[in-house]
Amino acid sequence: MVVILVLHAGLAIARRGHAVIVLDGGNPGFGASTRNGGICSGNVRLPHGLISKKYGETFADEVYAEAIEARLDLTKFCKEESINCELQMTGRFTGALSVANYDAQAYEAERLNKVKGHKAYMVDRKHQHSEIATNLFHGGMVREEIGGFYSAKFFVGLLRCAEKAGVCVFSNTTVIDINNELNGKKSIITKIGTIISGKVIIATNAYTGNSYRVGRFL
Ligand SMILES: Cc1cc2nc3c(=O)[nH]c(=O)nc-3n(C[C@H](O)[C@H](O)[C@H](O)COP(=O)(O)OP(=O)(O)OC[C@H]3O[C@@H](n4cnc5c(N)ncnc54)[C@H](O)[C@@H]3O)c2cc1C
User: How far apart are CA 61 and CA 57, in angstroms?
Assistant: First the structure.
């Protein structure tokens, strides 16, 4: 049940001395992990302002600070493990679709800059050519701390690290079901046989589907 999510977890667990196997129904890497846009934003879907309004500013700050930490951790991980995935923190421009959207972005930029590690600034319509060759936007926001990498290269690097640490990765091994055993262990029923395991992490993403009983856990 690969890929980046479970490989990362598997790597950490294997390095603590446990036996780890990773099962994928297809070829490891075929899912979202190698087909995404490679944007390393650690972005939080909900705007800081909205989280503050609902749960308070301290909580919003904590959520956004954790996103920055995740990004820093990714950079550190790539460096330490010598994963050459062309990771570059190039910044990201988000065009405003209207004047009102520009104002909302400006409000968001102001809030973001109060959280450690964020560097956001506005570019008005007149100057947006410094970021993008179009006149269509009403200006926009630049966030300097966002970058990108080549996701397939990252995946290959991570896979090598995990295998080196002793993680056994099996392809074309679809998990059909997982059952509890009386001794507290789990039996993992796959298309090619059953494995007994102490703990199971399911990370099948939107590829889980409902063809197999394992989908009922999600
Ligand atoms: C088009 C697109 C663009 C994206 N862009 C970005 C981006 O720019 N930045 C960003 O941070 N995130 C982006 N994402 C999100 C990111 O790619 C995913 O969140 C991440 O890859 C999920 O990793 P994963 O390991 O959970 O799942 P996946 O990499 O999808 O792996 C799931 C695996 O589960 C396996 N599986 C499914 N069912 C079974 C089963 N029954 N038995 C065994 N194996 C099974 C599949 O074969 C698959 O290999 C994007 C996603 C998409 C789809």
Answer: 6
